[in-house]
Fold these 3 entries.
Entry 1:
Amino acid sequence: MTIQWAALGLCAAGSAIRIPGLRDARGRTMFLALVLLTFAVGLSIDPLYRAMDAVLGGVNVANLLLRMALYAVFLLFGIRMAAAFGSMRARRLIAGPFGLSILALTVAATLHFFVSSELEGSSTGLHAFAGQDTVQQYAAVGRLYPGYVAACLVIPAALAAFDRHARIIHRVACALVASGYSLVVVFVLLRLTALDLMYWDVLLPFSAILLTVLGLCLIRASHVIGRRSASAANRLA
């Protein structure tokens, strides 16, 4: 779908605009997270997935890499954004013993269900194997950790959007991030039901990616504007 290519392009652009800051050791965590997200989104697109999986043996190891990349993305996003929003509670829930235990259990369960499944022959999203119970469990487990991290960050992001002391561009950015994480939570909850999401099964998660990455790009722009304003003020002083 077009939205998948749009998400891939925006993730790549979001990564690229952070490259200049790497020389000053700024934003390395977010840069790595965006690169991993670009990789994961790329593997959700059929021709890119099939090409990668063919190199890896054609047994859908590419899907496992996609899952692991997403777990890393949500962990890195969670740690960095909880700090940016000034939410120590969210940071503890994500990077503390409880959050890391959830991550470890998620990774272990993901590996277990992947190894237990019959996955001979590349299939993007493992749709060709949807009838296998282990594949269904594998997919369900893969959604829970992103949903958990997103739930931890929705309120801090929303509160930041209502901060009257922040720049308008920063508040808009936080609203976009809050909306993106809200869509992740909604998507995870809907997939726990028996509802047939049809095309929303793609639109919801990729809309969440678009909103979140666009918000991150605006946050980056807000920081650049802030540094330039401070530099100009120092020169005038």
Entry 2:
Amino acid sequence: MTDNQDHRGDVAGLLLAAGGGRRLGGRPKALLEHRGRPLVEHAVGVLRAAGCGRVHVVLGAGADDVRKCAELDDCVLVENPDWAEGMGTSLRAGLESLAGTGVRAALVSLVDQPGIGPAAVARVLSAYEDENSLVSAAYDGQRGHPVLFGAAHWAGIAATATGDRGARAYLKEHAASVRLVECADVAEPYDIDTAADLRHLE
């Protein structure tokens, strides 16, 4: 176990917040309200509370509205013009934005999973060792989010991130190297995808 504070500058939070909420009537997920503020603000706050000093946020659907409505002044905002093609394009855009920053790993989270709080994110962050790290939260043994990708893996992930699969193919291919960190006791990995899921928002 490493101390999160020791590696605060090594690991950046990468929040994927470009989704258009197709099954929510086209409401950008970043702007769904949670605890009185846009969901994207809540998700950034979780990354900060867990120990991520630098946070990059990938925007897509309703990007201009998100910039106006959400307080993200302390984040690096990355616009993904190809967001409609799927999460893979946002992951590629986010990793590209981190190139050259000196960051050695990216801790990737999704804007539409408010049931995953700082405790789970901090656990994944604490498993970071170096740029070769591959770490994933697990829920009853099943891989989920957030995930941490050491910089040594970014090129390989970007090459295989297509459609809505994100890094799934890469993680499957490198399963033996992925460290799973059980988080079911501190988080619920549900997604806000449909109108029925809106009950999870407060």
Entry 3:
Amino acid sequence: MTELSLPQPSVRLDIWLWAARFFKTRSLAKQAVDTGKVAVAGQRPKSSRAVRVGEQLTIERGEEHFEIAVAALSDQRGPATMAQQLYVETEASKARRAETRALRIAARDGYQAPEHKPDKRARKLIRALGDLDAI
């Protein structure tokens, strides 16, 4: 007697990225996959590729880089707490993201946003400072 192999459950990559809340819409997830911002096991996939539990993903979203392992599958977007249970992020990835976040915070240290919009006199001064060559 031969053993029947049951198909392993899978979900489309773009749908899983949307359900895991890496992207706000499925079309943004598809665009990220198509432009090479997502890699599966080091390979550049198609957005229709099937994702399975245990696969390693590298996701580039803006200035953030995630290295994760797929822990569960879902094709429905739920609350953030459930979405975080769909993957496990590596410790190296967490440390690297914390370091880049600290660098971004340090870079903007000392900048204070204005409390209100500039009035007519302040706008006139800003325009004058912006056009120093005209003087």
